[in-house]
Write a structure and sequence with these properties.
alpha+beta; globular; 9-stranded antiparallel β-sheet; Thermophilic metalloprotease-like; about 25% strand; single chain; binds zinc ion
Length: about 400
């Protein structure tokens, strides 16, 4: 077996053992792009070998997706198939694990009208809301891994030919996901221990407010008194530990819905629905976006903010040191799962219920009553850099440094 095959096998093992942590007799539902077939085949094999009962793969293809956006009538974007929602509900009831294996293509929909993209996102978000809430509440384990696409490789390494570009991107993916280490499973466990130390520190401090200062950013974020910092992975309601994002470098919690004030400037492009928003900023008052700007993708950003009331409020506060395996590559990946793990970020939209004590037991109304944001969307945007300072304010009003020049002080 050559070294690529070996790495591919190790990467599949990370997805199955660390990512969704498949249990004996469990079902696994995989959403995969055709470009990722070489990895998906290994994942399916591995999953059965460790005891999965049934592995179901649903394929998607960029060309097919693009054709729909280009040529389908408007009504094709207004209805989400009921059988599809039903299949998810059935799998959830069976306790299946969910795995996404995607090959990002950041510019796939760049020539499609933002309205069409927003319509479909909204239609599917409404149809899948109940399913998504159950998944976001960690009813079952779920995870995402990515593989190269030729267009993505071309965007990142325009100087290389197609084959070289894809190989280069695989190299980075194997590095960033710790696949290229001798014992990736052990490395992931050590990584978890390191993240736990930060979580313990922050959960003991119970800061009531975070104060962000950087170029173009002057922002305060109040945290709910019952906030919980989580990271490194989650635990299902049945007690199975899993890692939703491979890689993951962040620790994160939920902000108070009405407690965000000031201005924040993005430090990386945001790829939303396969179209790019660049150099944007938001101004918040009492938790709500009251002004925004974007040098590129203004209309897309506007549509995103118009999704619903909760799209104008924050749902996640995440800390990531500037000194991390992804940011150390010096590459902007134009992919949220990679870029968010290279930079402190915030998310517009729904909170993760597990970021609040007893949050997974709360319904939408309970969350609202507790001043926590709910929305059809959850969209991360990056605002960290080597210039970012963050202070934490303690219950008695003392300010303590948490980040200086983009890195942990603790
Ligand atoms: Zn995050
Ligand atoms: Zn997020």
């Amino acid at each position: 077996m050559d070294s690529f095959e070996k790495n591919l096998e190790k990467y599949a093992e990370i997805a199955v053992i660390i990512g969704v942590n498949i249990q004996k007799g469990q079902e696994l539902a995989i959403n995969a792009s055709l470009d990722s077939a070489c990895l998906v085949r290994k994942i399916v094999e591995k999953a059965y070998k460790v005891g999965a009962k049934n592995v179901m793969v649903q394929w998607t293809d960029d060309e097919v997706t693009l054709s729909k956006y280009k040529y389908a009538p408007d009504e094709a974007f207004e209805k989400f198939p009921k059988w599809k929602v039903g299949s998810y509900e059935e799998m959830l009831n069976n306790g299946a694990a969910f795995l996404n294996v995607t090959s990002p293509n950041p510019d796939l929909l760049s020539d499609i009208s933002p309205e069409r993209i927003a319509n479909w996102r909204k239609t599917s978000a409404i149809a899948m809301n109940n399913v998504r809430n159950q998944i976001m509440s960690d009813k079952v384990s779920w995870s995402s891994v990515i593989t190269p696409s030729k267009d993505w490789a071309k965007k990142l390494f325009p100087e290389l030919n197609e084959k070289e570009g894809i190989n280069k991107l695989w190299e980075y993916i194997f590095k960033i996901t710790r696949t290229d280490l001798d014992d990736p499973i052990k490395a992931w466990k050590e990584h978890k221990t390191n993240i736990n130390k930060k979580l313990e520190y922050l959960n003991n401090k119970k800061y009531k407010r975070l104060i962000y200062k950087s170029e173009g950013t002057d922002l305060t974020i109040d945290l709910p008194s019952a906030h919980v910092w989580i990271g490194g992975g989650s635990t299902t309601q049945d007690g199975i530990f899993f890692v939703p994002n491979i890689p993951t470098e962040e620790v994160f919690t939920a902000p108070l819905r009405d407690g965000v004030n000031g201005t924040v400037k993005s430090t990386m492009p945001l790829n939303y629905g396969s179209s790019l928003i660049e150099n944007f900023s938001f101004t918040f008052k009492d938790g709500k976006v009251i002004d925004f700007s974007a040098e590129k993708g203004y209309e897309t950003l506007k549509k995103l903010l118009e999704t619903d009331e909760g799209a104008l409020h924050l749902g996640e506060v995440a800390l990531v040191p500037n000194n991390s395996p992804i940011s150390n590559t010096g590459i902007v990946f134009y992919n949220t799962m990679y870029d968010e793990n290279a930079s402190c970020h915030l998310a517009l939209g729904n909170i993760y219920p597990s970021c609040v004590k007893d949050g997974t037991k709360m319904n939408r109304e309970d969350l609202k009553k507790n001043n926590l944001n709910t929305s059809l969307i959850h969209v991360d945007f990056m605002m960290g850099s080597s210039k970012l300072d963050i202070d934490g304010e303690t219950e008695d009003g003392k300010l303590e440094p948490v980040f200086r020049n983009g890195n942990w002080t603790v």
